Amino acid sequence: MMLRHQNLVHVLREARQGVLGNAFPPSHVRAIVDENVFRQEQGQIGTLDQFQPAQVGTDLRWDFQHNGAVAFFETWHLSGDMLGITSIDYSP
Fold first, then answer.
1. From CA 52, how far away is CA 23, in angstroms rounded?
2. Cβ–Cβ < 8 Å for 11, 38
3. Is the pLDDT of residue 50 over 90?
4. How buried is 44 (Cβ within 10 angstroms: 0-12 exposed, 13-18 middle, 19+ buried)?
5. Measuring CA to CA, which residue among 27, 37, 30 is closest to residue 6?
6. pTM
7. What is the per-residue pLDDT for 54?
8. Cβ–Cβ < 8 Å for 62, 70
9. What are the beta bridge partners of residue 55?
10. Across all residues in the chain, what is the average pLDDT?
11. Interior CA angle at 91 toward 65 and 76, to 5°?
12. Local structure of residue 79 (DSSP, 8 states)
């Protein structure tokens, strides 16, 4: 599962990189790197891929890899206007 603090680490790093003048793609990649380090520090397995999430309709799916394979995923189901999360599924 994504941790609330993990998302905070991501947002803060991405914003900092933007303030430093970096464009979105490298800022986002740097934020994912820091987010994955934070996950490891918290004892969580799996790392986020920089090309996630995959969008299927109004759903967003994040795959977490461990030892080169997808260990689990998290899917956010968004409202029709994509402004709110209606539910989150986890696997396994």
1. 18
2. no
3. no
4. middle
5. 37
6. 0.73
7. 81
8. no
9. 60
10. 89
11. 90
12. P
